[in-house]
Write a structure and sequence with these properties.
The complex is a heterodimer of chains A (235) and B (82).
Chain A: E1 3-8, H1 15-24, E2 28-33, E3 44-47, H2 67-77, E4 82-85, H3 87-94, E5 101-103, E6 111-119, E7 135-142, E8 146-148, H4 151-159, E9 163-168, E10 187-191, E11 197-200, H5 218-222, H6 229-232
Parallel strand pairs in A: 1-2, 1-3, 3-4, 4-11
Antiparallel strand pairs in A: 5-8, 6-7, 6-9, 9-10, 10-11
Chain B: E1 2-11, H1 18-29, E2 42-49, H2 53-68, E3 74-80
Antiparallel strand pairs in B: 1-2, 1-3
Classes of the chains: A alpha/beta (235), B alpha+beta (82).
Amino acid sequence: MLRVAVVRFPGSNCDFDTLHSAQRAGTEAYFVWHRDTDLRGADFVLLPGGFSYGDYLRSGAIARFSPIMSAVQRHAEAGGPVLGICNGFQILCEAGMLPGALMRNARLTFASRPVSIRVEQTDTAFTNQYQEGAILRMPVASGDGRFVADSETLRRLETERRIVVRYVRPDGSAANGENPNGSVHDIAGICNTRGNIVGLMPHPDRASDPALGPAHGAGFFTSMLTWDHVAKGAR
Amino acid sequence: MSYRVHVRVVPRAGLLDPQGQAVEHALSALGFQEAGSVRIGKAIELEVRARSREEAEQAARRMCEKLLANPVTEDYSLEVEA
């Protein structure tokens, strides 16, 4: 069975949703604490949403120095897949494992509502179960969700097709900037060049069990079962 | 020796600063039409143990680059008290 480590930081609050989603997909998922130094043989690592360290200084800025993050970095450098959801995405950017940064929402409000996103890159450890162009509906819940990057980084993200999911209107048409937080190019999630590290602001963990509504996010977790990460490590 | 260091961190020019905009609108609503280009950042104060002022400044600069400021979105400046 696939071993999936869900990292808990002080202030994580989507840890159980993420664990449940991974278990529901048929993996052996378990928690690791931020002070642990060992991922206990994890094939996949998930960084859940929340407010690690109270978002002190900047969202994700302190969590990146947690002891467990050295193990997460080694795992990723060896080609091991890592998914950061919401605060997990912020941590990955702060740690330099993904480019760019997440800033205060353009309208200053905490955005907590369902959004529509389009899957644009399916060759990743967490989106290979979706069709390219699929429109998914799932919640965002963040105050610092506005993705920014310099123009060279944005150009690379676009040309290398590393924008994994993008905010769209509910009918699937382009949002043209009318997204929940003011993210540049309507970016909701990105990946690294190898496709093994993925981060996104919307919450697939809150849309993965049909008991709670449409399970559009379940594919992020079932994709782990069909990702040959040893072969993909050389991508 | 211990040196008192004042660090100022502000959102990089050109990046949208919605907090600055909101405060600018509030100032304008209060009648301060003369206020503009408001940017909101952080002030961080710390004591740095070092053998000289230069050494304290270099250490503080490394702290800014590693943690206190985000190199993607923020600029910093610092001042070391004599």
